[in-house]
Amino acid sequence: MTGQKVVLPFYHIVSDETPNHIYHLYEARSIEEFKSDLEFLLKNYQPISLQELIELNKTGRQPKQNVFHLTFDDGLKEFYTVVAPILKEKKIPATVFINTDFIDNEDLFYRYKASVLTEKYAAKGLLEVNSENLNLIDEFAEIMNYDFYEYLNEEQPYLTFHQIQELIKDGFTIGAHSKNHPLYNRLSIDEQISQTLESIDFIVQKFNLNYKVFSFPFTDDGISKDFFSKIESKVDLTFGTAGLKKDSIPFNLQRIPMEKNQTAKEIIKGQYFYYLLKRCFGQNEIKRK
Ligand SMILES: [Zn+2]
After folding, report:
1. Distance from the alpha carbon of residue 241 to the mean position of ligand 1, in angstroms
2. Which is deepest, 30, 235, 285, 287, by most CB within 10 Å?
3. How open is the CA angle 168-243-233, to the nearest 5 degrees?
4. Torsion angle of the four alpha carbons 16, 21, 25, 31, in this order, in degrees rounded to the nearest 10
5. How many domains does the chain have?
6. pLDDT tens, 40-77?
7. CATH assignment at residue 67
């Protein structure tokens, strides 16, 4: 009824234990939940690769069959340790979106820092910190004499350069997720463009890729037509997280967040239902100014 035959589920982490840097932000999808998500998806949709998705998007048409492509944001190590072995066994392609500042555990996303400190010092207020006052997190850590580099060293939250290379060799695809995960609609358009293009260029060169894809950190809400027209010739696809929705920018695809307390069937059925409901009010497409 919706005519929407492409679903793009999106995750951050699959693990039976939610690590401290994520614990106060959202719950990890358990391995069992993830496996049953895959079972549902494989029963109703055909997995396609990123290259197939790019080609499909160029035609501007819906595929004949129902298809899905899996994506994972933030470049967390659990993609390598937990997810990739499961997907390899089932021959399911996936794309991982990486923050270039965090490869090899060089630094930690400020929301992850807030979660770590909240766990250690019950400093819940830090979870309210946003991009405008994020220096508060480092200031708090300094006062408490807390060393994030020690945490990074011990926990190794992110994928390393070598793990990414190995994933590419195994057929997985890699995209950029900005340099350091800022909230885009608070940045100037010049900053949005540099965060996007510099992170894409970095991974394309480092990993010798013949495709260029990008997923927005947090949300693409409020991103202008002007921004997209300035990056259009330099990307194949970009990705948002608004669920099953069309976008007035044809190469910006919306994905379905899967880290909810529901089964894949419930989440995806719900998305189709909302799509139909929103269509009644002409709200099934994101329109950009
Ligand atoms: Zn992210």
Report:
1. 10
2. 235
3. 55
4. -20
5. 1
6. 999 999 999 999 999 999 999 999 999 999 999 999 99
7. 3.20.20.370
